[in-house]
Amino acid sequence: MTDPVPKDFRESALNTIRIERDAITSLEQRIGESFTRACQAIMACRGRVVVTGMGKSGHIGNKIAATLASTGTPAFFVHPGEASHGDLGMITSQDVVIAISNSGNTNEVVTLLPMLKRMGTPLISMTGDPQSILAQEALANLDVSVLKEACPLGLAPTSSTTATLVMGDALAVALLEARGFSAEDFAFSHPGGRLGRRLLLRVLDIMHSGDSVPVVSEGTTLSGALLEISRKGLGMTTVVDSNGLLIGVFTDGDLRRSLDKNVDVHTTAIEQLMTHNGKTIRADQLAVEALNIMEEMKISALPVVGEHGELVGALNMHDLLRAGVI
Predict the structure, then answer these.
(1) Residue 193 has what pLDDT?
(2) Which of 37, 69, 99, 172 is deepest in the core (most CB within 10 A)?
(3) C-alpha distances in angstroms, 40 versus 124, 178, 180?
(4) Closest listed residue to residue 217, CA positions, set 252, 241, 245, 249
(5) Predicted pLDDT of residue 131
(6) Which of 39-43, 190-194, 283-287 holds the top average pLDDT?
(7) For the residues of 148-196, what is the DSSP string, one character each?
(8) How far is CA 306 from CA 79, 280, 287, in A?
(9) CA-to-CA distance for 191 and 10, rounded, in angstroms?
(10) How high is the pLDDT of residue 70?
(11) How many CB atoms are located within 10 Å of the residue 245 CB?
């Protein structure tokens, strides 16, 4: 290596971003019939999408396969070198193969073509040369060619890998929308993370129920309600009628307002002080919906009601925090 040359690092970085931005912009002109054929082939696939690629294309292919799999299109990556030494058995005629090669002539990938053709496995290619072997053999070639790499030597895959990655994202999102893939579907692919908890956890899973629910009848005095709040530790108590239907809520905030009025805690009935028609939530709703209500209304607890307004549970902000929803 030669001695380092003084360089404006910031200008170099900005030039890289500009070149790669232009590479992405140019993809808009190439979303046409070939892209539609690729989507149709994957939608009709009864197996899985198998992504393959060598070197940097392989790294991008791994990410594309992961994105497809997490957005409703079952997919996995197969290294083309390993495929030639046994892993080709992972691919069946029911699958669709996406082969990635900037040149379109990568030996390890091209070597797979005769066997894929023999099995009748549909092939989609992502290449930088529409006249390459890989592009010509594919039922749909997605053109990811770039004018130049961001690397000033024109050697390190930079713009080309970025363009390929974006084309893969475009494919995954188009398929996601075509399948009607929902946020809840997405959560089932991510059950271990915070996203999964927010999208899968329901109020029923974390609410207090039975004897742990703070509840008093409408004829209870303020002092009786305070005892219930203290016993249950949710910072509130629900108030129900003789049929068990929720008619109100009495919270710490209601208590402060009551004391400002100098009410008699031993004789004043709770229905005179409670909040009528307060916010509630159903047990089958998402826990994150409870969080949204609490944050919007600036409250720290919610009664949980059934289909006919009967009290079935309660939860507060601490329950959501413990469950990892916050």
Answers:
(1) 57
(2) 99
(3) 11, 10, 15
(4) 241
(5) 95
(6) 39-43
(7) --SSTTS-S-SHHHHHHHHHHHHHHHHHHHHHT--HHHHHHT-TTSHHH
(8) 53, 10, 15
(9) 40
(10) 86
(11) 13
